[in-house]
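Recall the central idea of this unit: under ordinary conditions, the amino acid sequence of a chain determines the structure it adopts. In this exercise we apply that idea directly, starting from the sequence alone.
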Amino acid sequence: MYYTKFIMKNNVLKLLNYLYYFSLTALPVIYLFPGSLIGYLLYGDFGKQPDFILNPIGTSINHFFFFVYLTALSVICNLNQRRIITNINFIVFISVFLEATHYIIPNRAFELYDLFANLAGVFTIFLLSKLIK
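Accordingly, the structure predicted from this sequence is:
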C-alpha cells in the first residue's frame, strides 16, 4: 500500500516537473513572437490580445495569472530542495527580461502594467510559500 502511494506521488511530481519545464519553454515562444499567438488561436487575429477576465487593468491580469501558475509550479517542484529563492530569482529575471524585449520586437509593446503584473504574480506565490512553511 505504501509503495503504491509513493509511486503515485512520484509520478505526480514527475508530471508537474514536465509541466513546469514545458511552461518555461513555451513562455519565450509566446513572449517573443511578433504578435499574439493566443489571440490567433482564439480569435484568428495576431493583433488581438485575449482578455480572459473583464477587469479595469486589461490584459495585464493574464500576466499575473501565468506567473502565479509558473511560480507555484516552481515552488512545488522544488519542495525537497533549498533552491526556492534561486528559482524565484530566475523567474523574476525571466519576467523582466522578456517584458523588456518587447521594446525591440515588432508588433509588441513594453507595458509597465504587464511587468508589475508579472512581478506581483511571482511575489504572491513567494509570500504564500513563506507563510505556509
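The chain has one domain: 15-132.
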